[in-house]
Known about the structure:
Layout: H1 2-28, H2 31-54
Amino acid sequence: MPEVKARLQQLALIEQAAQNAVYVADQCNELLIGIRADECLQTVRDRIAEISEQGRL
């Protein structure tokens, strides 16, 4: 399923970006950005797990 693989690759990039945002927010002591990035990161991780378990979008 090429579309599943492609979507997982996209989500992996988003996950990395969210991790970077959390790191930068922590370094800058910016709580609001950190909270939002953390929520995004958790949502992306949940979606990756869901797609991986089901094997479909």
